[in-house]
Amino acid sequence: MEDLDTLVLRTALSWHQAGQPVVLVTVARTWGSSPRPPGSLMAINERGETVGSVSGGCIEDDLIHRIREGGVQAACASSTPTVLRYGISADEAHRFGLPCGGTVELVLEPVSQHSRLDELLQACQQRRSTERVLDLRTGRVDLHEGQRDGVPRMDEHHLTTYLGPKARLIVIGAGDLSRYLSEMALSVGFEVIVCDPREEHRANWRLAGVTVCHEMPDDLIQRLQPDARTAVVALTHDPKLDDLALIDALQSEAFYVGAIGSRRNSMHRRERLRTHFDVPESALQSLHGPAGLYIGSKTPAEIALSILAEVVAVKNGVRLNEPTQVAAGKSRHEAPSAPEAESAVALDTCGV
Q: What does each of the 352 residues of the chain score in pLDDT, given as a tens digit?
């Protein structure tokens, strides 16, 4: 499954190459509360078909009406972008479903050969972050190397946006938990790679949209060189596999590195990495173990949800409070009564 930005760009390019007039809509600026952040994309073709979104739905309806009334072909013939603002008045905010006081400014860009969508998509596929500068007077576009999460900006003559590789999740181990985690990660737009050199574990492991490989985990990590849009999660419970992946992942640019396991196993893992593999303390501080947020998980699906929630939170720059993480959450949880102690210990081996 593609992330939404890539889907919008690919669909807009496909429509354009098929000879259909297309308008690419970008959220340029917002004031107050808004349903979609700056940089959000949407494309509309001459039939009123859309992909992507810029609000909760009402603005999309108005845009389709405007474009149909004005004529997509006429708009594309001029190649000149248009700037629209919604939500200036309380009446407009109510009409278009914007939160109280919210205002959104959009750039409507007729797609042409000057839009360079094919080059932009190629850069994304090659995991290159790109700065896209649209000339609001001519519709021409310049592409430069740039940061993935730059904040869009607009002045009198230019709109600058940033696009880049989709978020990627590397999962070590092919098991039931990996399957649930992969399915959830795909649904929120991650590229997913599952690595397991054990033939018996991956023999019947198939999931559409997931790349399954049989390399040793350290070989895979060294080959892929995780970038700042990559998360690595080790799920085998086997130090021979998990530790190998973690050694290199912790010293890469990966935004998240985590491993499943009990609090005790996580403590022993850190000690092994520190003592036997000379992993720097600064790198060990970034290891999420036990991986996940504390939600009282008991099933593989719930554990996967816990882990992915933490991955997404870190990706989005959320500062996590210690009680929300597994180790702290469990230590604060009410001590089990004697009959429950055995099952509680069993749950602790899963770490979430």
A: 567 888 999 999 999 999 999 999 999 998 876 677 889 999 999 888 999 988 866 788 888 888 777 665 555 666 789 999 887 666 666 666 665 557 889 999 999 999 999 999 999 888 888 999 999 999 999 999 877 667 899 999 999 999 878 899 999 999 999 999 999 999 998 999 999 999 988 888 888 889 999 999 999 999 999 998 999 999 998 989 999 899 999 999 999 999 998 889 999 999 999 999 889 998 899 999 999 999 999 899 999 999 999 999 999 888 877 656 666 656 655 554 444 433 333 334 344 4
Q: Which residues pair with 105 in a beta bridge?
A: 29, 85
Half-sphere exposure of 97 (CA within 13 A, CB side): 11
Provide the β-strand partners of residue 84.
Answer: 106
**Can you tell me the distance from the alpha carbon of 144 to that of 273, in angstroms, rounded to the nearest whole number?**
39
Contacts (Cβ under 8 Å, ≥6 apart) of 352: 260, 290, 291, 292, 293, 294, 295, 297, 302, 303, 306, 307, 326
Q: Where are the domains of the chain?
A: 4-163, 168-348
pTM of this structure: 0.72
Contacts of 346 (CB under 8 A, 6+ apart): none
Residue 61's Cβ-count burial label (10 Å; 0-12, 13-18, 19+) is middle
Helix (H) / strand (E) element for 323: namely none
Q: DSSP string covering 200-244, please?
A: HHHTT---TTEEEE-S-HHHHHHHH---TTEEEEE-S--HHHHHH
Q: What is the homologous superfamily of the domain 168-348 according to CATH?
A: NAD(P)-binding Rossmann-like Domain (3.40.50.720)
Provide the token pair at 303.
């554990």
